[in-house]
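Support request, priority: normal
Reporter: lab tech (M.K.)
Component: structure prediction queue

Hi team, I submitted a job for FP protein C-terminal domain-containing protein from Parnassius mnemosyne yesterday, and the status page still shows it as pending. I've pasted the exact input below so you can check whether something in the sequence is tripping the parser. The sequence length should be 322 residues. Please let me know if I need to resubmit or if it's stuck on your end.
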Amino acid sequence: MFTCHRCKIEARDGVQCSLCLKQYDFPCAGITEIGFRKLGDRKATWKCNACKNASSGSPAPGRSTSYAPSDLDGIRGELRGLSEQMSSMPKLLDSVKNIQADLADLKTIKCELSVVKDSLDYVHASVDKLIARIAEVDREIQTLQKTKEDVSRLEQRLQKLEAVFNDGEQRSRLNNIEIKGVPITNTENLFTIISKIATKIDINISDNNINYIARVPSRNNKNNKNIIVSMHNRYLRDNFVAAARKCKSLTPLDIGLNGSNRIFINDHLTLENKMLLNKTKSLAKERDFSYVWVKNCKILVRKSTTSPVLIIKTESDLRKIV
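Reply from support: The job had stalled in the queue. We restarted it manually and it finished. Here are the results:
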């Protein structure tokens, strides 16, 4: 390393004047590195411009300036170096153009990367929101799961309470019978109708055996009211129902009324048990069960005369009919 005498900038390589011994970098020396290398042995006699001008002095008037052969060789070397440098200019220009194109591409890529970065930032923000929402939904699902379990327990408890209530209500009807198919008249006497039915089915009953008697609206037809009769004891009621079932052709004509329809005498079932009886009959028909009947307010089914008797108390018992 040395400091150029002219520009005062440090340089790695340069030339040294053979007279003043001052060092110059190649641009300040006025010679190219290639030209200086081609001087060969003449590099030891190289002079800076200041020493050249001092040794040659000003030319006399009327005389032409002459150059030493060494100077001409140096000039030729510099010209050859410049020519070589100029020959590489097209390649340098192409390289510059390629660099400019690459810079333009880099700028485009930079813009695209900026757009991608913005998109990724948006995606990350969306993913964070989605993760937070999923966590919230998960908490809600856990809450709903717990609520579902609570509802399931309440439903089971309600079913048990409904079953207990239905059993209690059905138990309160153990002394009752329900008569269906008796026409309504304006001057009817229900006690007289029961007495005529008892005579027809061959059973002895008096008004004193009846706790109460009334007509109630039917669920399907409010104009066709069934007769509900409450006996004083269950045994009398059982005998009345059993005798009525033996008489399978009881009609209104048998008790002095108009009509050819059949009169049915059954246990007084609750509304829930009536619905359960209808479902039992429908399913029994599908599964080829031959017998469905009611005894002591209990629904019974049997596939054949040799099959066991099944008791149907709830809808879950319908699974027994297979």
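The first strand starts at residue 2 and ends at 3. The radius of gyration is 62 Å. Let us know if anything else looks off. Ticket resolved.
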